[in-house]
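Fill in residues.
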């Protein structure tokens, strides 16, 4: 099967700072600059960085850099407002995306939105493996489009949701009309077992095709 290029366009953010590569900042930036020069259409060319490491990133930037930033808002609402101001004041950075881990926002997603510019795409990550249906209902009712974030793995086996759990998430997002992005563990196109760990990983192509099926009404 040949996968249409449009299906894969702008699919992958640059998560070089995060496991499994977990590169130091200077190496992650060097790789990102090389990816920008190559301009592969599979990449979004967004550089993901925790808000708590924003100062470290800025210290490593060069005068000619121009980065589309995916900010992980791990410092809560007060920190988020200050971080957005810092990005806006730096001509080398553009805020292209904000991911909101709701565990850091006791006031919920609306608390995060109050600290953000109105034109920045936002994805809210549920706290832990709690029931997510109320969150999707809330996101679907917001005047501003806000997506959800699905965590598909991590450094421990229990961080990997089962295939039925992922399927239920995809169907719920489709029914609520909420876009989602997925993170962690999606290192290959199809579902597989990693030889080094024995962890059963989901595949990003599996997610894409399941999402297409769910958008078409599949259960």
């Amino acid at each position: 099967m040949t996968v249409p290029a449009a299906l894969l366009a702008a699919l992958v953010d640059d998560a070089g700072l995060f496991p499994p590569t977990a590169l130091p900042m200077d190496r992650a930036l060097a790789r990102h600059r090389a990816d920008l020069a190559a301009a592969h259409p599979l990449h979004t060319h967004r550089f993901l960085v925790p808000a708590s490491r924003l100062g470290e990133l800025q210290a490593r930037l060069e005068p000619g850099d121009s980065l589309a930033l995916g900010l992980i808002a791990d410092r809560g609402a007060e920190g988020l407002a200050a971080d957005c101001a810092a990005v806006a004041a730096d001509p080398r950075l553009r805020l292209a995306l904000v991911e909101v881990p709701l565990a850091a926002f006791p006031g919920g997603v609306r608390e995060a939105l109050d600290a953000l510019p109105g034109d920045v795409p936002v994805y809210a990550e549920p706290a832990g493996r709690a029931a997510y249906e109320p969150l999707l209902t809330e996101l679907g009712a917001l005047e501003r489009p806000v997506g959800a974030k699905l965590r598909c793995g991590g450094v421990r086996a229990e961080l990997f949701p089962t295939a039925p759990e992922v399927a239920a998430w995809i169907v719920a997002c489709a029914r609520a009309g909420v876009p989602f992005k997925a993170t962690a563990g999606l290192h290959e196109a199809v579902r597989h077992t990693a030889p080094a760990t024995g962890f059963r990983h989901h595949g990003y192509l599996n997610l894409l095709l399941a999402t297409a099926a769910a958008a078409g009404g599949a259960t």
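Residues 28 and 191 are 27 Å apart (CA to CA).
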